[in-house]
Amino acid sequence: MAVVEILLPGYPLRTARDSMGYASSTLVTTDGGAKVLVDCAGYSDRTQFFEALALKKLAPEAIDVLVLTHLHFDHCINARFFTRARVLVSQAEYEFAARAVRQEPYGDPYVIDDPEGMLGRLHTELVASETAIAPDLRLLFTPGHTPGAMSVLADTAAGRVAMASDSAKSVSELITRQVYPSAACDPVAAARSIERLLASADFIIPGHDRRVRVVGGRPCLEDVRDRPALTLHIY
Hints:
The protein is of the alpha+beta class. It is built from six helices and 16 strands. The chain has one domain: Ribonuclease Z/Hydroxyacylglutathione hydrolase-like (Metallo-beta-lactamase, Chain A). Helix content is about 20%, strand content about 30%. The longest helix has 14 residues, at about 185-200. The chain is globular, with a radius of gyration of 16 Å.
């Protein structure tokens, strides 16, 4: 069974200028001992992110697989430090990001400026179909927020954990089963992805909010006030 640890919990933030937030980053240790990182934070989280890895006595070179759920900067900008890892990105997401940065005037303003340059220097693998990373860990296509968004499903001793990233950014999206239209390139597909996550997992880790337990296909909030703020060992 895999072990899932939240390195950085996600936090939502909404202002008059738009919504933004601190993205979650999660470490999975597979039954075979592989270290798999799901997303790698943004610029403003860089110091805390690497401090959280160091608390686990891990350097970037110790990560075997880095899953980039999508190519928005707050989830992937630190990928350049993981020069030894297999870096998994969906084919659809890569193609979307490559188009977005060429669109006028700005395309998707959250997409990293040079996806080809960043990913071309890494051991990047473009994923065209849902696949297993390990017997207890697999990729799930959950488009809507972006065309190629992925989630990661881990089988743990406590149940199945979905690292949803921005396919379910917040607790409110899981409760309402829909996203703000401005937060998705395809709101209908995003709603379907949320339904799939709720049907697939016992726990969901959103991209910008606290974890949620799923009971009977419905999200149930948990009391997290006593949990450490920086790194959470949960399964």
